[in-house]
Amino acid sequence: MSVHVNHISGTVEPGPFEGLPATLDPGLDGDKEAKGPLASTTPAWPTARSQELEHTTIAPGVARMEAIHAELRLHDRIILFASIFIVAYAYGLDYLTRNTYQAYATSSYSQHSLLSTINVIRGVVAASIQPLIAKLADIFGRVELFVMAVIFYVMGTIIQTFALNVQTFAAGALFYQIGYNCSLLVIEIIIADTTSMKTRMFFAYLPGAPYIINTWISGNVVESVLRTSTWKWGIGMWAIIYPICSIPLIVVLVLADRRSRKSGFRPPPTFTGKNTKDSVMQLFWKLDLVGNLLLSGALAMILIPMTLAGGQSRDWQSARIITPIVIGFLFVPAFVCWERVAPYPMVPMHLLKDRGVWSALGIVTWVTFSFMITASFLYTVLVVGFDFSVAAATRISSLYSFCAVTTGLILGLIISKVRRLKPFILAGVLLWLVGYGLLVQYRGGIGSPSRSGVIGGQVILGIAGGFFPYPALVEIQAMAKHEHVAVLTSLLLTMSNMGFALGNAVSGALWTQTLYKRLQADLAGFDDGTLAAAVYASPFAVLPEYPVGTPVRTAIISSYRYIQRLLSITGICMAIPIAIFALTIRNPRLSDNITQQDAEKKALEKNDGSGASSLPQGVFSRWGHRLMSG
Description:
Blueprint: E1 3-5, E2 12-14, H1 60-71, H2 74-108, H3 115-140, H4 142-161, H5 166-194, H6 200-204, H7 211-228, H8 231-236, H9 238-262, H10 276-286, H11 289-308, H12 319-341, H13 349-352, H14 355-375, H15 378-385, H16 390-418, H17 422-441, H18 448-465, H19 469-478, H20 482-522, H21 530-537, H22 539-542, H23 551-573, H24 576-584, H25 601-606, H26 619-629
Antiparallel strand pairs: 1-2
């Protein structure tokens, strides 16, 4: 007999679906607890909320994943996580190498300074689509969204490969970013659907595990591709590789879904409208398309102009820069007001008031913000300012990911025993400040101390990074019931990508407003000013003409030391809020279940026991409710 869980009492009661096992691990009785990192837990099968909550049917995608989860035997789970590793290996290696190819692509278009603009566009897209992806995954299912992610990934890759100008290349980056972030989010949701809280951090790091390998081979891959071909083939080959690597994950989930249906599971209907019009309106409101448009519009109009302003101060006085920034800031209060009255806001408002939620969101936002200020142009600084080779610069750029994943996997095993998060997060704050201190001190030069210093800074930042993002992910998931895990996960990734966009915007603004002027000053005695413009626009093309030791190269290195110092000081300043949020975060004891038994209890008590996504009593919400009900 199938089961469902009373969310208030935590007791197991008879459910409506026959033939579904009470546990996820074959051979276990329904009243026995599974053991080990791959152990399964008793699935929840609520068709309605408890008496304390408003009666509402569980989302079809969530119900289907719970059914799939119940059908996964031990060997299925091994295949599932192995498939996740294969997919993550593919998009991880592509991500590392594509960032390098992107620098060469913008340089080939003589638009290298637009590198941060493209990164901002990617960050804006990634930030605004995460809640939309989570809601689509809850409505239509995880498998369907992953297939869609693969399609967008391939589309973006093909567009970038055949781009003839930087505008088309940026358009391809947009499609690629949708596919990449959709893949990343769906995989993290699947992991949250199939692991216990105490082992969550270890398995959450599984998609990042390939960085342990990719860090060391990515440089060789880039060097080999650029030696035998161009950056176009380096990007384009992933349009073939990635879909092939995605097949095992899709197959294992589809087969488990079929088994669940043969066992008698029938998911709730996707739409409950009387006709097509009602169903379309339901989808419109449930996806909160208005909120997504306001959020993406605000981010795009504020952040992108900051990097497009160029190296001249007069650009900041032009209407093309000022107007979108002003409109973007006006969109922010409009977005907040809309979310307060939206029929289906991006995140239930009672959760945003929970200290465990907003502190975790603050940590990931400022960590990413702080890191991206120096990471955006790190590869260029390593090649130009430190005279590292292509392979060495690529590896050093990847050191953060390597150290973060290695630390995170080890820390995940420790946390599965300790079951606490906060002490490790606080330790990470101290390491983060030490790492940035090294970057400020060793900001450029061809000497051994400078080179060792920047490598040491990246290593320490990476170790600190293992103490931050995924502990925050587990923290925020510990605050939610299963039906809210996907949307909270998406919100955390949204804030991370907002930090990504903000970091790129700030670094881009500093780069465009400072570097060109500094190059003009340092190279003033060598030509009439055209050399500074050439180095600023296409540094990789100019460097071979001026070997290390020549006066021109020494002047160029001096300029890059100056900009790296500004970026590093800004980055360490942006790290201060991390400490504040780390001190305020909760420290729950992680359980053996998929979710904490007392999840949302405090948030519900503060909201008079109503945690349902009920419509706020306002003009817009009543209007939306009438449209939804026809």
